[in-house]
Amino acid sequence: MENFEFHGPSTLDQALAAMGAAEDGKFMAGGQSLLPVMKLELAAPSDVISLAGIEALRGIEADGTTVTIGSAVTHAEVHESEAVRQAIPALADMAGGIGDPQVRNRGTIGGAVAHADPAADYPAALVGLGATVVTDRREISAEDFFQGMFDTPLEDDEIITAVRFPVPERAAYAKFANQASGYAIAGVMVASGDAGIRVAVTGAGSCVFRVTAMEEALAADFSAAALQGIAVDSGDLISEPDASAEYRAHLVSVMARRAVEACG
Amino acid sequence: MPTVSMTVNGKQVSADVEARTLLVEFIREHLDLTGTHVGCDTSQCGACVVHLDGRSVKSCTMLALEADGAEVTTIESLSNGVELHPMQAAFKEHHGLQCGFCTPGVVMSVLDLVSRNPDPSEAEVRDWLEGNLCRCTGYHNIIKSVQAGAAAMGG
Predict the structure, then answer these.
(1) Which helix (H) or strand (E) is A189 found in, with range?
(2) Quick check: B153 and B84 in contact, CB under 8 A?
(3) In a 10 Å sphere around its CB, with 0-12 CB exposed, 13-18 middle and 19+ buried, how is residue A166 labelled?
(4) Predicted TM-score (pTM) of this structure
């Protein structure tokens, strides 16, 4: 790993100032994706600006209609939060299935969202639940946020401060994970609420996507049986030696049915 | 070079380090605490697990500077040099290790589990060990050891 200047700001303003003064700076949250990338020298920033010490990015707030999670909140904290479990149990369960316990103790929601790994779990949760990404300067709907593989509209000096989820009537996430990495080969979040009925898929394609045909079928009849015979086009999916596009298409249908069943 | 300070196994330590120094490098090379191992160096195998402010983390995927001001606990803190910690004794008793390379990380990982779940089921132990790889034992004796260790600790 190349060396760099390390900054540990305690306020957003200090973090933005450090980024402004850096030649090629990078914000780091829990570092569970960035540090591996830096070890491989796929990234070699001149400055690493840790967001972990910024109190304004911490904390979970929930009322009857909304759950707002600070960007520096770890996956373990989301998993263990009583407030999240009461409001959106699907989100608490999903966070408990990311990586492994040690990764969950360091990795954060803001870091995972900013990284936008196409096989990560959070993209399906954000798009499926109709969440909003809040940054230091604007709000971006989840569907506008995830634009492609590791591709988001975030500016280089923009900081995610929180993610805001509307509380659904019901929701569930089902994932078929790669045995070695734990990443989703296909992960499906199904939710119904004020944001309508949504079926969001991660892991199968190069970016999280919604399955309109499934959403329409569920709007008419919210049951696993209603999804029978509805499949996504494997031509749009990723093909890898351990999971072909056709296999992924099949898994999307199976995970969608499991998620609907888990909605109860 | 920046200075990093933290508490390791109850002792205050401080050193000048390159920013890119990983926590595991700081522990092994600056503090000579070599019980914490580097296996894969890609946050998969868990041989490098230590506790940071009471939670288990992979010290190969963390900068030493990120632990500035924190309390770090390593495998060396468990035994007083005469008696093994009950979890270590359980691993010995139940043959929970063969080559032993992964063992410090496994033990530190499961102590985090037992601290929040004093009597974990077999399924809970297996689920928790997602982030620890052992290439010798096939895990069965590790699970036995963890449950026996948890019981000996009072769970």
Answers:
(1) strand A184-193
(2) no
(3) middle
(4) 0.96
Q: Is B57 within 8 Å of A102 when comparing Cβ atoms?
A: yes
Are A35 and B20 within 8 A, CB to CB?
Answer: no
CB count within 10 Å of CB A156 equals: 10
Nearest CA in chain B to A34: B61
Q: Do A35 and B128 touch (CB under 8 A)?
A: no
Structure tokens at B8: 């390791």
Determine the Cα–Cα distance for residues A56 and A162; give it in Å rounded to an integer: 9
Other CB atoms within 10 A of residue A133 CB = 25
Q: Evaluate whether A251 touches A186 at the Cβ level (below 8 Å).
A: yes
Find all residues with CB under 8 Å of A225, minimum gap 6, and list them. Answer: none
Q: Is the CATH code 1.10.150.120 the one for domain B86-152?
A: yes
- Distance, first Cα to last Cα, chain A: 48
Domain coverage including residue A9? 5-50
Residue A21 burial (CB < 10 Å; 0-12/13-18/19+)? exposed
Judge whether A6 is closer than 8 Å to chain B, CB to CB. Answer: yes
* Six token digits for residue B148: 């026996």
Residues A35, B63: C-beta atoms closer than 8 Å: yes
Question: Does one domain contain both A151 and A130?
Answer: yes
Query: Could you list the pLDDT tens digit for every one of the 264 residues in chain A?
Result: 999 999 999 999 999 999 999 999 999 999 999 999 999 999 999 999 999 999 999 999 999 899 999 999 999 999 999 999 999 999 999 999 999 999 999 999 999 999 999 999 999 999 999 999 999 999 999 999 999 999 999 999 999 999 999 999 999 999 999 988 889 999 999 999 988 999 999 999 999 999 999 999 999 999 999 999 999 999 999 999 999 999 999 999 999 999 999 997
Q: Which DSSP string corresponds to B39-51?
A: SSSSSSS-TTEEE
What does chain A come to in residues? 264
B117: exposed, middle or buried (C-beta count within 10 Å: 0-12, 13-18, 19+)? middle
Q: Does A52 touch chain B (CB under 8 A)?
A: yes
For the domain covering B3-77, report its CATH number. Answer: 3.10.20.30
Residue A116, Cα to own-chain centre: how many angstroms? 7
| Domain ranges for chain B | 3-77, 86-152
Nearest-Cα distance to chain B for A6, in Å, is 6
